[in-house]
Design goal:
It contains 13 helices and no strands. It is mainly α and about 250 residues long. It is globular. The N and C termini lie close together (about 10 Å).
Length: about 250
Amino acid sequence: MKKILDSLVLKYETEEFIKNDPIKFPHLYKEKTDIEISAFISSLFAFGKREMFIKKLENLFFIAKTPSELICDYKKYDLSGFVYRFVKSKDLIELLRLLNKLYVEDKSSLEELFYEKNNRLKRVINYFYSNTFDNSSSGFCFLVTKPNAKSALKRLNMFLRWMVRDGCVDFGIWKGIKKSELLIPLDTHVARISRQLGLLVRKQNDFRAVVELSEKLKEFDKDDPVKYDFALFGYGIEQKDINKTLLIH
């Protein structure tokens, strides 16, 4: 199994992966702050049809010279027409306001916010909810998952992978978090392929499934288990069912 997964990582973890993935947006920037802000926003909007949310992100990042300028001067931009599924302009504006608060008012950063090891994701979610003016909007509640929700937190885990792992796709610009601490970004493709390969037993795609699969992947690489996200996600996108020839290769 390790040989199979390692071969799939080599196949999918390439620069070619970037062009059709939301990670392409932070790759447009050189400054660390711009990379992490654009990565965070891109990861939160990475749901639904890929071509649709990528188009929305292209339009969003086009309106300001850099993501730093976008959050610093968000009030001067006309975002009234922004709609993506159930996320409305007010939800986007609230997100930008909270990022402004974090970076400008608090003089902090996403890296500092994510740094604490224990209850890391819960702490991040609580920060945004405790500082929002209106957390009753369904759009905002989807962008920043509600505290105590039984979510797999796929998008936050994906963002962490981007920031912590190094390589030709991920950035590796956050040094205070170990790759071994990362959790798998669990979506329907990764979950389906993992169950077909016998890597995941739990039937629900929730946070318990994330922990179960992440621990299983540590058996193949205890220092960098989330590298297998490329294998499981990439193959899941291309194949509806595990090919028997792959399993006996």
